[in-house]
Design brief:
Blueprint (H helix, E strand, L loop, with lengths): L19 E2 L1 H9 L8 E5 L12 E2 L9 E2 L3 E4 L10 E9 L13 E5 L11 E4 L3 E6 L2 E6 L9 E2 L10 E3 L7 H9 L4 E5 L3 E7 L3 E2 L10 E2 L2 H11 L3 E8 L3 H14 L2 E5 L7 H11 E8 L1 E2 L3 E7 L2 E6 L3 H20 L9 E6 L10 E11 L2 E6 L8 H6 L2 E5 L11 E6 L5
Parallel strand pairs: 1-19, 6-7, 14-17, 14-18, 15-16, 18-22, 20-24, 23-25
Antiparallel strand pairs: 2-13, 3-12, 4-11, 5-7, 5-8, 6-10, 9-10, 19-21, 21-22, 23-27, 24-25, 24-26, 26-27
Helix pairs in contact: 1-6, 3-6, 4-5
Bound molecules: adenosine monophosphate (AMP) and magnesium ion.
Length: 426
């Protein structure tokens, strides 16, 4: 169950900067309020790609379904071979994948077998064809085997991968191509998945103009709604874009009310920095319960999290790079939890040699945009150039974040740093 927010819990009075919340602490705080959506849909398996399983998938059958050969060769009875000498056995038939021999194999006999073919009753090993010699004689075919054949060699046993009734895939697994194949291999055509998360977002700011309208003096095009759209759509969310909302209390109140009625999650960008936060704060205090943090990170210092009505709310900073950094550091994992993903995948950190010096103050986590590359077998990383939190080009050029932890100070060229890979994760 979600517990009610208590702002005192979010206080950071025990931290070195009383107004600054460490990244990890904010993340844990947010996670304590999240539980998966409850709606479940049954869908044909192809439609389950990218969705999250809402039920355990139990294997209705043994996998493999029958004891079969891992090789092309001959199936035989080990007892027919002396331990120290080979033997010549009579080939009595064949077993192809899907066309079994169908009878028991007797003493002194062997069966030609192909990969996937059922190992006939009585046989307990398969010898690969390269290790046997065929001698044709008047009685048909005699096959000569060298000594040293081991019991069960090249035999795949029924139920060895999965026993009937065992959990093939646990609830909470994201369905990727491998899972699709595994579910299909069990003969299952439909699965229960969580319904997609409904995420509503809007931008705030009097300076923002939507594409298709001319820019007036001091105005800029709204880009945050597009990065948000991209990040959310890639996560399989149902995305509802409410456009730009002016910095006007009445308009904002209506937007928050509408958004929280339709969304599981409401995300805004802009309006949470010092100076702007005050009227947003009193508005959100009226509509729900929201904490406003200064996070000990760069970029992305201001961040708001809480509940507006029944919806989870993330108030991201307005700067375009900050929006993306805070999304990846806080919102992404939160959405995965709400989508029902368990266990939560850990974001891999890679060690790389930083080729450029970086100025950094200890006491906060910094996320520099980087380009990770391999040189002479060593992972190296360089910054993408200007790192201003408004410079989206630095995000576009990047394939990773260089993550400089709280305790780290200036980084010399040649130092080893932690890198969060963006490719394949987002
Ligand atoms: P704010 O957090 O509202 O103070 O905004 C911080 C900076 O980000 C300002 O320079 C804004 O103009 C800019 N900004 C805010 N929202 C957007 C947006 N949706 N698209 C592009 N830039 C934005
Ligand atoms: Mg603003």
């Amino acid at each position: 169950m979600n517990k009610p927010l208590t702002i005192t819990e979010a206080s950071c009075a025990d931290d070195y900067d009383p107004n600054s919340m460490p990244v990890e602490k904010a993340r844990k705080f947010i996670h304590s309020f999240l539980s998966p959506v409850t709606g479940v849909a049954r869908v044909p398996i192809r439609s389950a790609l990218g969705r999250v399983l809402a039920e355990d998938i139990l294997s209705p059958v043994d996998v493999p379904g029958h004891t079969n050969s891992a090789m092309d060769g001959w199936a035989l009875r080990c007892d027919d071979l002396a331990a120290d000498a080979g033997a010549a056995l009579t080939e009595v038939g064949s077993s192809f994948a899907g066309v079994p021999y169908g009878k028991a194999v007797g003493k002194g006999e062997c069966v030609r077998i192909f990969t996937g073919g059922v190992v006939p009753e009585g046989c307990d090993a398969v010898v690969m064809q390269e290790k046997a010699q065929v001698v044709a004689n008047s009685n048909g075919k005699s096959i000569t085997f060298a000594p040293g054949v081991k019991k069960n060699q090249n035999v795949r046993f029924a139920g060895e991968d999965l026993k009937a009734g065992a959990v093939a895939l646990a609830k909470g697994r994201t369905v990727r191509p491998a899972e699709l194949g595994l579910i299909a291999s069990l003969g299952i055509g439909e699965v229960g998945v969580y319904r997609p998360l409904r995420v509503v977002f809007f931008s705030t700011g009097d300076e923002l103009v939507s594409i298709g309208n001319p820019l007036g003096e001091g105005q800029i095009y709204d880009s945050n709604r597009y990065t948000l759209h991209g990040m959310l759509a890639r996560m399989g969310c149902e995305v509802i874009d409410m456009g730009v909302i002016r910095d006007d209390p009445a308009l904002l109140e209506k937007a928050f009310r509408d958004a929280s009625e339709i969304g599981d999650v409401v995300i805004t960008s802009g309006g949470v920095s010092v100076g702007e936060a005050d009227f947003v704060k009193s508005l959100l205090a009226k509509l729900g319960e929201v904490v406003f943090w200064k996070i000990a990170m760069k970029p992305g210092r201001p961040l708001a999290y809480g509940k507006v009505g029944k919806a989870h709310f993330f108030g991201l900073p307005g700067n375009p790079v900050s929006v993306m950094v805070t999304f990846y550091q806080f919102v992404r994992d939160a959405l995965l939890i709400l989508q029902g993903v368990t266990p939560l995948p850990t974001q891999p950190l890679l060690k790389a040699v930083c080729t450029s010096p970086i100025k950094k103050a200890p006491g906060r986590t910094e996320f520099q945009r980087g380009i990770l590359y391999l040189e002479d077998g060593v992972f190296k990383v360089r910054v993408t150039g200007e790192q201003g939190s408004g410079i989206l080009k630095s995000m576009s050029d990047a394939n990773c974040f260089i993550m400089l932890h709280d305790h780290v100070g200036n980084v010399d060229a040649g130092a080893t740093v932690d890198v969060q890979i963006l490719e394949g994760v987002v």
